[in-house]
Amino acid sequence: MKLFDAVKTYDYRSLLKHNETFVFFVLLGFSIVVTIINPSFLSIENLFDLAKSSAGMAILAIGVFIVLLSGGIDVSFTAVAISAQYIAVKTLIILGIDNLALAFLISCSVGIALGSINAFLISIFRLPTLITTLGTLSVFHGGLLEFVGSTPFYSGQIPDCFKSFGLAQVFTLVREDGTKFGLSLYVLIILGIVVVTWIILRYTMLGRGIYAIGGNREAAERAGFNITRIQFFIYCYVGFLAGIMAIMHLAMIRYATPTLSIVGTELSVIAAVVLGGARITGGSGSILGTLLGVALIVALQKNLVLMGLSSYWHQFLVGLIIIVGVSITYYQSLRRSQQRVVFTEEL
Amino acid sequence: MNENLLEIRNVSKAYVGVQALDKVDMTIRKGEIHCLVGENGSGKSTLIKVVAGVVRQDEGEIIINEKLYRYLHAIDSIREGVQIIYQDLSLFPNLTLAENISLNQEIERSRKVINWKDIKEIARHALDEIGEDLDLDERVENISVASKQLVAISRALTQDAKLIIMDEPTSSLTRDEISRLFNVITDLQKRGISTLFVSHKLSEVFEIAERVSILRDGKMVGTFNTEELDNDRLVYLMTGKKVESTIYKFDEKKKKAPLIEVRNLSKSRNFKNISFSVQEGEIVGITGLLGSGRSELALALFGMFPADSGEILLEGKRVSIENTQDAINAGIGYLPEDRLNQGLFIEHSITRNIIVTILEKLLNKFGFISAKKREELVHEWVNRLKVKTPNVESPAQSLSGGNQQRLVLAKWLATNPRVFILDGPTIGVDIASKATIHQIVRGLAENGMGIIIISDEIPEVLQNCNRVLVMAKGKIIHEVKDVTSVTEDEVFSIMSRKEAYEAV
Amino acid sequence: MFGRHSKMWTLFIMMVALSAIMSAALPGKFLRLLNFQSMFSQFPEFGLLSIAMMVAMISGGIDLSVVAITNLTGVVSALILTRMIPAGMAGPQAFIIMALAVVTAIVISGLCGLLNGVVISKFGVPPILATLGTQGLFLGIAIAITEGHGISTFPEKFLFIGSGMVGGIPMPFIIFVVIAVLIFLFMNKTKLGLSIYMVGSNPTVSRFAGIDNDNVLIKTYVVTGLLAGLSSVVMISRVNSMRPGYGAAYLLQAILVVILGGVDPYGGFGSVLGVTMGIIILQVLQSGFNILSFSPFFKKFIWGMMLLVVMVINFFVAKYQQRAKKLGTQPVESVPSPGE
How many domains does chain A have? Predict the structure, then answer.
């Protein structure tokens, strides 16, 4: 009975205020439409596959989300990721070592190092975050290609540890015809990151500090938050996450082309985060929303063909979704702020 | 045992070319409600920042709880129990009340991990201390200004405050909310917590303070028991001058057709059925408590937040005012309440600021701005309003406060309005400049402009207007046709009486 | 240093010094007429984009979609030029189609700008986000239309815009100068132009001053769009082709040039003169890099570094000015206002 009461008395109206609800319903609607066209969309196998392919974007999105929470924006994360990836794989190949742990170590270290450069510029010099990270995007990517190298590594050259990592599964199921499929380990990784991030944001002073900076930076300073330290954490964390994503990405596609991959997807990732409800002014949003946003973008990506559109329309669709999505969200707050209400009831 | 909680001795502080504080002495007793008053630029905010340890004094000492500090850091001040509540309250809009109240303490205790139970408990305890019941899970951005203030006070209490400094706390509160705030302060006093209150509203000084310290030009004039003072003496001590105030007389015989006429102007949830008229040469005052709809009415007349229904007629002709450009074209000017933040482009030149509203008048036949016309116009207005500056290309921020006020006026007069609305024209302005502004305004009226003064300072409207409209709860409830026939108290009671609210 | 216009003088000195260094370091290669002609025909398309970025920034925003707009308008014009002009078409007919291509570029770029302006002002979306989204939108349409391929080979007469010369001076350069002067007059001498400065400086104060912020912002982005459209016309006629993704590097460079040229990223300040000098400085560097055969990767690295270095320098300059004010050794300086 208690559960029933709880369901009855729940404040459903407050749900409507949340951006996440909208995204959820859009996602739901979209899924239904797609399933009608192609029933295999909602099959377990397909869902597992979706989960695996969206894990990378999800990790990057969480990093971007934290930056947005603090009132900033980072567009260099893709360059950080590709740099981490390329340096890690090149080092492994040159040294002839086939060790996944080492790969992660190198990748995350590079990520944190590059992230700290961003942190330094933004916190010490108080530079505007968009333009700064546009600059570091160029510096990181250009620097990587020029000083580390630009030759791609193909499947044959990639150490085996990556391949086995990419195929690792949490559990395996058997199809009717005897072939197997399973839930990728990636899902566990993303889950782990989600949990860790959530704990940091909710249960540590550091996390609340991020929200505080995004809400009112001056008040955060006055309250005694160490802004510099928090910003270093934020941007290094993004770098760290980019490092993790880099290895996962490499293991999945099994080749490294530093000139072409990852960089260029900034728009999709930021779109996912913003659609999920994070404000560009900072201070609000949720991990759940971010994940829903990623799910929506990936679902779209994967089903373009099903909807009769060639993959060339992907970029357009992402842009369109951002525009429509943010217009609705921001329009709502615009209307609210334009209505000056002195009295709560009619006169 | 020393009854003084805080003692400031011989404190001086200079900024570039300005002696902000000059050998100031002040004491605050334990459990005292103390007011700090002074005109703009008297040094009030510097003084409280010195006490909070945010600004370091050049000379002098600060003694808190019988401990001597030559150099006071913010953290020392906090540890001694001094809490400062800035005018902007320094709250986090995106966080809950519980967090806003408790975070400071948690940071001070160097906590790394958040225990939500603790956070709520600390906040609940703090709110209970001031006897308020607010929803701890609500986000601060969703609550009223008055509630935000209570949150700020509770926050101050979590850190074992002995002295709470408030900088102009009542500027955005309604009468009821001010009463509530004063109750809280009195309550705090009973518990031995002192309050230092910076205010420019002299009426509040008399209402709540036991003692008042008066600053003038950086020097402490003295600290007095409020019961020993009255309004005139207080003003005299603040300004060093006896300010003559004469009532504005309007020659009834000059009556013509109205310059501006407002008929049944209404805006949902802001005001309803407003009708009045202003003639050439009249200065009409509109007064009412905060929240009476008076500022909203002014903004509707200026097109900032247009009305929903009703008519506005200028010189007998109906005009449609849907935006500020319409209003300016119709000949209505508006001097905003926060002149500096809403009236000036502070980093741009004096020239730029003056011409921005009248760009159309400066166009030559190609549609370009004529440099010659621009210079002529700027020099004309700078001279007429005596804006002191060596160079009109200097940025507005290089002017002194008083000159900045004049610049804003110049900017509007350059549009040659037929009707000029002034919203709180002398708030935050020092008394000498106040007089000048009133003088300028009267001169304008005598030259045929119609003036509307919106103000909650009753003495201001009674002295400067020939007619006063009283608003409450969105409607005009009373018109004072003869300003000599009423006293300030009578008007105040009209504005605030319960019947006004019930009848509406 | 030199009072109000210190920033302009600094840029001027930088521009001259850099050219001198380049000439000295690369004797015989830099200071050649051919080199100058090539420089002056290359930079206009990018220069127009920089001016577009300047206008958007002065209004307090930014336009990340400028390159995407050039891609889209370029692709559409290219289609008109290639599909509607069969090989043997007679002079006047071909000319009309070419004119149509140019007009279409203008119209489409204006519409793109209009979309930007509406989303930003009427829906209240922050410019970063809005133009990030429209960038995807416009580029996406271009990709979808061309399926990723380039379109090339335009009528010879058309190529005159981008490759022709008038009395030894490259045509694009002439176009650039004309537009730069027009924009200068626009920003400094017209009501709308000054309003853009005001809205970028403080939107609240400008509302109280009777400026229709929404209207001004919409027009700002339309102007930005139009400039991008013009740039695309110059682009396709110089390179004789267009493919989606062309000019991606220009975005960062435009921002670099604009910041270098003294535009305040927060809005309200900036001048055509400063931006032009920034463009020249960049082009001189670019030219030097080409002569030295720097790889595109290295160049990308350098542009990014320059942007960061310039901003850090600005930080220190501002700090120095503030400290000088406090010590009373420097009078309160006015920020250089454009052309006054």
Answer: 1
